[in-house]
Specification:
- This protein has 295 residues and is an alpha/beta fold.
- The protein contains eleven helices and nine strands.
- Helix 3 packs across helix 7 and helix 7 (206-216) crosses helix 8.
- It binds glutamic acid.
- Glutamic acid binds next to loops.
Length: 295
């Protein structure tokens, strides 16, 4: 811990696709605690790239509910800071620049497969998270072999519904030491496959946007839910390819409901909004994390 005192920069990065729930609150609270004990800064970033799912009403609610819960950030969409904008939809140039770099260095290839194609062609082994392993249909194909440049990228993107995938180094062990879960190892090509970094609807995919932003915002430790452990391995490959410094990682166990089901935005009664409207006191909620839900 001492090496990060005073230089620590953590972040919370909600997506405004619904009301935040207790699971988010618990992870964000941990992020705030980690920033506090390291005497560092906490950054709030609005991850609103998916225009079809993100709604302005949830942006407002997110800020309000997080403040009600007792979260305080030093930089963010509402208060600014040196590394803004802190809203992903306002950062297209940063993502395009990274895409061009990956294109020029041969790390990515264009993919013409629809989601249905991928599901049909994919078979066991199953990955460790929900993303189906890409069967490699477009890897090494015509589009992969061509020398890519910016013009061909634009032509492709405009004329066809293509996405861009990162070519993972099959068989390589990607390891990192997680602040909570300890040593982690994932095998590229087995635990995760060639992942999407740019979507067919011409918006950056989560993996690329989050790496570009965490690097640009000088985040030193990423605190988030354990559902993203495998994604961390993907992201380490992106940090490498983009020559960015890899931050530390601290993944939090997920909060589940009384049936052991992981909380999601559909658990309306455990949304911060509902807890607040029902007259709960945030201090009490924090004292009883494990009473209202198993953790
Ligand atoms: N915006 C992502 C989410 O809400 C968080 C991603 C991250 O923390 O890396 O799931």
């Amino acid at each position: 811990m001492s090496d990060q005192v005073g230089t620590y920069r953590g972040r919370i990065a909600p997506s405004p696709t619904g009301y935040l729930h207790l699971g988010h609150a618990r992870t964000f609270w941990t992020a705030q605690e980690r920033a506090r004990i390291h005497q560092g800064e906490l950054i709030l970033r609005n991850e609103d790239l998916d225009a079809a799912r993100c709604k302005p009403v949830f942006v407002e609610a997110m800020l309000e509910d997080l403040r009600w819960f007792g979260l305080q950030w030093h930089e963010g969409p509402d208060c600014g800071g040196a590394y803004g904008p802190y809203v992903q939809s306002a950062r297209p140039l940063a993502y395009q620049q990274a895409l061009r770099h990956l294109l020029a260095t041969g790390h990515i290839y264009s993919c013409y497969c629809s989601r249905q194609d991928v599901l049909r062609a994919a078979s066991a082994p199953h990955p460790l998270d929900e993303e189906v392993i890409y069967p490699g249909t477009c890897r090494g194909g015509e589009s992969d072999r061509q020398t890519r440049n910016e013009e061909s990228y634009k032509d492709d993107q405009q004329s066809r519904r293509i996405s861009w995938r990162f070519r993972v180094p099959d068989g390589e062990v990607i390891s990192f030491n997680d602040g909570y879960f300890g040593q982690q190892e994932y095998i590229a090509g087995r635990d995760f496959g060639d992942f999407m970094i740019w979507r067919h609807d011409d918006i950056p995919a989560y993996q690329l946007a989050v790496v570009v932003d965490d690097a640009a915002m000088k985040i030193t430790e990423v605190v988030r839910g354990s559902d993203l452990l495998v994604s961390t391995a993907r992201q380490i490959l992106l940090y490498r390819a983009l020559a960015f410094k890899v931050p530390s990682f601290y993944h939090c166990p997920l909060v589940t409901d009384e049936n052991g089901v992981r909380l999601a935005k559909r658990h309306a009664s455990l949304s911060l909004r509902a807890l607040r409207e029902a007259g709960n006191d945030p201090d009490e909620v924090r004292r009883h994390w494990s009473v209202c839900c198993k953790v």
